Amino acid sequence: MKVIITGITGQDGYYLSKLLLEKGYEIHGLIRRSSNINTFRIDPLISKYSNSGKFNLHYSDLIDSSSITNLINNIKPDEIYNLAAQSHVAVSFKNPIYSTFTSSMGVVTILEAIRNVEKNIKFYQASSSEMYGGATKEMFSEISEFDPKSPYAAGKVFAHNITKIYRESFGLFAVNGILFNHESPLRGETFVTRKITRAVGRIYKGLQTKLTLGNLEATRDWGFAGDYTEGMYLMMQHDVAKDWILSSGKSYSVKEFAEKAFNYVNLDWSKYVKTSKKYERPNEVKDLLGNSSKAQSELGWKPKVSFDELVKMMVESDIENAEKEKMLLDKNLIKPTWEYFT
Q: Which of 117, 208, 214, 322 could form a disulfide with 280 if both were Cys (CB 3.0 to 4.6 A apart)?
């Protein structure tokens, strides 16, 4: 089985690649030519599998239709997972054209290539809970209305809908995975959960003295990325292409996440956390909570890692990272960041 994964250098790209490699897949991952190449998440997979031909990387870009089409025609994969996007919501307000264009036109490029290639290829589109907008505290399902509050979410709504259109119009096996927030030690450091656990590790090791966040009352349905990539795989093995939500069914506030993370190292979060309007969104998504009963009944999927276990996993990892950073600082092998003095 051959698979193409866009966005392979991200958190989900690592966990999905690891899962599929263990199942015997041949991986072909796409890396943007224009980006600073940062493969630290997938470096263990490169070291272990690249010489076997099981793990391959290709330079391409979702907005370069000719390169995407050529790769699909040459590789002729059995499955394509589209995980690539400018995925930071706040950044999408600052760079809306690129954010929305990548999310929307990149999907059309892949779907058109699949439609015209002489092979039945399954397609997975990474949809997002941000599409719902979160204006109310309802539990969202697959039939809930979308109400995007950011350029990122608007682009995802287009991608979600065009995937359905190609499925219904051309009979493609094309699924949308509507994933609610999923985290891990590999989450980007600009995302709030990782920003919190990284700060906890650095404060615990004396490298930082404060943490500044935005809206502490926003609530999210948080799960473990490794669990959610298993759900992606199960969607692609189902007999019929559909759309499914993956979520834990429980929501917690940013404040509760921070409190639990600091409690893990016996620190009072309120002594270290400050808030600033700078980190609030122009159009806030207040609450996101998902109903994954359809995925649980039809796919046999359910989240395995609890909220408490997730926070513990991330804090422990960032304590280790802080220990390494402190050792390098003590040996004058790196220069301290401004956070060291605050």
A: 214
**Of 87, 128, 247, 248, which residue is the catalytic one?**
128
Clarify whether residues 228 and 282 are in a common domain: no
**Phi, psi angles (nearest 5°) of residue 93:** -70, -30
pLDDT (tens place) for every residue of the chain, 342 residues total: 999 999 999 999 999 999 999 999 999 999 986 545 689 999 999 999 988 999 999 998 888 889 999 999 999 999 999 998 766 677 777 778 878 888 888 899 999 999 999 899 999 999 999 999 998 889 999 999 999 998 899 999 999 999 999 999 999 999 999 999 999 999 999 899 999 999 999 999 999 999 999 999 999 999 999 999 999 999 999 999 999 999 999 999 999 999 999 999 999 999 999 999 888 877 788 999 999 999 999 999 999 999 999 999 999 999 999 999 999 998 888 887 655 444
Residue range(s) defining the domain that contains residue 44: 2-183+221-246
Q: Which CATH number is 215's domain given? A: 3.90.25.10
- Report d(CA 202, CA 199) in Å as an integer: 5
- 167 contact partners, CB below 8 Å, separation of at least 6: 173, 174, 175, 241
Catalytic residue among 124, 152, 204, 228: 152
Q: What does the alpha-carbon distance between residue 199 and residue 269 come to, in Å, rounded to a whole number?
A: 11
CA angle, corner 42, sides to 39 and 44, nearest 5? 120
Q: How far apart are CA 164 and CA 108, in angstroms?
A: 11
Q: Residue 299: inside a domain, yes or no?
A: no
152 catalytic? Reply is yes
Catalytic residue among 14, 79, 104, 130: 130
Beta strands in the chain (DSSP E): 2-6, 26-32, 55-60, 79-82, 122-128, 174-179, 182-183, 211-213, 219-220, 223-224, 243-246, 252-253, 273-275
